[in-house]
Write a structure and sequence with these properties.
- By secondary structure, the chain is an alpha/beta fold.
- It folds into 2 domains: 72 residues; 169 residues, Rossmann fold (3-Layer(aba) Sandwich).
- The protein has 7 helices and 8 strands.
- The strands form 2 sheets. Strands 1, 4, 5, 6, 7 and 8 form a 6-stranded parallel sheet that branches. Strands 2-3 form a two-stranded antiparallel ribbon.
- Helix 2 crosses helix 7.
Length: 249
């Protein structure tokens, strides 16, 4: 009897010991799994935080671009400078590689912000020597020639004021300029003549321009000596500045 009780007690002790050992053996496995799950969760949270931080500057940059004011295009000029000029041998100044009128035209455009357009012959038959050039100019004047010019003028509807200049040829505009006057619509424009010369002054450019463009308003003209345009540009620039100021530019 006593032996049976002892055996039962021994079995109970053995069962209790296995159960404790089993619980102790299983506990570390569950703890490690939980720790690994926590670490993974923390790493995922850290990755999400880094992605959020990385996205925030990009989003801010996109918003800055979206909110930044758009650049505006500078307003187009409503003033134009049209001119005809010649190089080669010229009276007093000798052989030049930039025309007297071209120099003054550029000064006007620079000081007014105007667009600039040079009248070029479609058939440049004009001699490069002075005497021969004057002969051709006189012949064209006697024949009331209308030499063609190259290309197309800018859209004149965009301009309210147009400066028009050339050298004086035999006391008048070169005949190619009358081609320009007659082939284009200057009505409603303010036309302001300027000339380069060696003693002829404005030569009635204003009155002749009024006759050729009767539906335009003619402004006060300017005459600059070719020698000043070439060799005394400070004086020429001062004359241009004073004239423009008087005109309201």
């Amino acid at each position: 009897m006593k032996k049976g009780i002892a055996l039962i007690l021994t079995a109970a002790l053995l069962l209790t010991g296995c159960g404790g050992a089993s619980a102790q053996a299983n506990t570390p496995e569950k703890t490690d799994a939980a720790q690994e799950e926590a670490v993974v969760t923390e790493e995922a949270s850290a990755d999400e935080a880094q992605q959020t931080e990385a996205q925030e500057p990009a989003a801010a940059a996109e918003n800055a671009v979206a909110e930044a004011p758009q650049e505006t295009t500078a307003a187009a000029s409503d003033t134009l400078v049209l001119y005809f000029s010649r190089t080669g041998e010229q009276y007093v100044v000798g052989v030049i590689d930039k025309g007297n009128t071209a120099i003054i035209a550029e000064m006007i455009a620079e000081q007014t912000g105007a667009d600039l357009f040079e009248i070029l012959p479609a058939d440049d038959h004009y001699p490069m020597t002075y005497e021969a050039l004057t002969d051709v100019a006189k012949q064209e004047q006697n024949e009331k020639a209308r030499p063609e010019y190259s290309g197309t003028l800018p859209d004149l509807s965009k301009y309210s004021t147009i400066f028009i200049g050339s050298p004086v040829w035999w006391g008048d505009w070169p005949m190619i300029m009358y081609t320009v006057f007659e082939n284009n619509d200057f009505s409603g424009k303010t036309l302001i003549p300027f000339s380069t010369h060696e003693g002829s002054g404005l030569s009635g450019f204003d009155k002749k321009l009024a006759g050729a463009c009767p539906d335009s308003t003619i402004g006060k003209g300017l005459a600059i000596e070719g020698n000043d345009a070439q060799n005394n540009q400070e004086k020429a620039r001062e004359s241009v500045s004073s004239w423009l100021a008087e005109l309201g530019f």
